[in-house]
TrEMBL record:
Residues 1-20 form the signal peptide. It is found in: Cell membrane. SUPFAM superfamilies: MFS general substrate transporter (SSF103473). Its main location: membrane. PROSITE patterns: MFS, SUGAR_TRANSPORT_1. One of its GO terms (cellular component) is plasma membrane. This is MFS transporter. Keywords: Cell membrane, Membrane, Signal, Transmembrane, Transmembrane helix, Transport. It comes from Nakamurella endophytica. The chain crosses the membrane at residues 39-61, 73-91, 97-120, 132-157, 163-189, 210-239, 245-265, 272-293, 299-320, 332-354, 366-384. One of its GO terms (molecular function) is transmembrane transporter activity.
């Protein structure tokens, strides 16, 4: 049996691997779109079904490990994710891609709930809040690594569409086997069936803060949905970038700098974190739109870094601003509400954009999308600025 320290880092690696696999298809989308000849609107549907399946699984199966134990549910989720990779390996059309993404979403949603709790269970008892930090940084770091590594494999490796998913199949099988050496941190308790019932609620004390955080949640995750669904297509169509390694690296930068920002902001207060993140998000979105209008790839890369950092800091600040107002027994329902808003913003606008691409074209749709996200980012900035001033005003009063 592994020590708690070693187990903590194994769970952290598992978290990053799960999210790396979820972003792996992003650099592959242009390749798969050309091979199976489907439209941009279909592409966004393939992206969105994963997010919706993840959300449904997270809201139902996510708390099940509190009743049956961490290890059984994590092992099962990893095996289901391996099965999703096998479906990707044998995909012969868009229907198989949809099935693979749904299965992957179910597995990832179940696993995210387990690994999040596991990290908190196993974190060092030194007051460092390492579990919370890794919970914030590991998923976005995994998204970045998955996109970047997949881009490299697509560009330089043989049979990349098969190799990527074969590698992840092997990784998930190994990680599922390693679950056996993890210490169990939860004793099975009754109530497993009731745990499958979704609980979405916002405590009265947190409602005002939650409503104030909604523009931030929507702006951050909507931009993330655009970048990870059609970002590869934008790089090809608008900037003429056909090097898949570059495509993967640019998409990876957006997610990776979200993780970097979360680490850098770990000791800041929620209001300051949200304020700085919203400012970076607004600036990055403006750069994103300017890069599309001018056809400037260097500016697009800079926008990915700035907007990615804004994503990480703004969402972390919004999350902290609401969770600190909830009692321990209220946090699960509140986090579910945050997940619902965030993942719907991650998926639904991307699907709408996919439908508009057929009418307006890819560049024009992305510009309109960026404009709306920019407006939300400015609203988020104004609300965060007001929240940051409120303690000082109260102190003077």
């Amino acid at each position: 049996m592994l020590s708690r320290r070693a187990a903590f880092w194994l769970v952290a690696v598992t978290t990053s691997t799960l999210l790396a696999a979820s972003s792996a298809p992003s650099p592959l989308y242009p390749v798969l779109q050309a091979r199976f000849r489907f439209s941009s609107s279909t592409l966004t549907v393939v992206f969105a079904v994963y997010v919706l399946a993840l959300l449904a699984s997270l809201l139902t199966v996510g708390r099940l490990s509190d009743h049956v134990g961490r290890r059984p549910l994590l092992a099962a989720a990893l095996l289901v994710d391996a099965a999703a990779m096998v479906v990707f390996l044998s995909a012969d059309g868009v229907g198989a891609l949809v099935v693979a993404r749904v299965v992957q979403g179910v597995a990832t949603g179940a696993a995210v709930g387990v690994v999040g709790a596991y990290l908190l269970d196993l974190q060092p008892a030194d007051g460092s809040r390492l579990g919370s930090l890794v919970n914030s940084a590991a998923p976005t770091a995994g998204l970045g690594v998955g996109a970047a590594v997949t881009g490299l494999l697509v560009q330089y490796a043989p049979s990349p569409t098969h190799l990527v998913f074969a590698v992840f199949t092997g990784l998930f099988l190994v990680l599922a086997a390693l679950v056996a050496v993890l210490p169990e941190t939860v004793a099975p308790v009754p109530g497993a069936w009731s745990a499958l019932r979704p609980r979405v609620s916002v405590p009265r004390a947190a409602r005002r803060a939650f409503l104030g955080a909604v523009p931030t949640m929507v702006a951050t995750w909507a931009l993330g949905g655009l970048v990870l669904s059609v970002g590869g297509s934008l790089l090809g169509v608008v900037f003429g970038q056909t090097d898949h390694a570059v495509v993967g690296a640019v998409l990876g930068l957006f997610a990776a700098f979200g993780a970097v920002a979360a680490v850098l902001a770990r000791d800041l207060g929620p209001a300051v974190t949200a304020l700085s993140g919203s400012a970076a998000l607004a600036a990055g979105t403006g750069m994103f739109a300017a890069a599309l209008a001018a056809g400037s790839l260097p500016l697009f890369v800079v926008s990915a870094v700035v907007a990615g950092g804004g994503f990480g800091a703004a969402f972390l600040g919004a999350l902290r601003s609401v969770t600190r107002l909830a009692q321990p027994h209220e946090r699960a329902g509140l986090l579910s509400a945050v997940y619902v808003v965030s993942y719907l913003a991650f998926s639904v606008p991307a699907v709408v954009a996919g439908e508009l691409i057929a009418e307006l074209g890819l560049r024009a749709t992305a510009l309109w999308y960026a404009g709306l996200v920019g407006v939300l980012a400015v609203v988020s900035l104004l609300l965060a600025s007001r929240a940051a001033r409120r303690p000082a005003t109260a102190a003077r009063g």
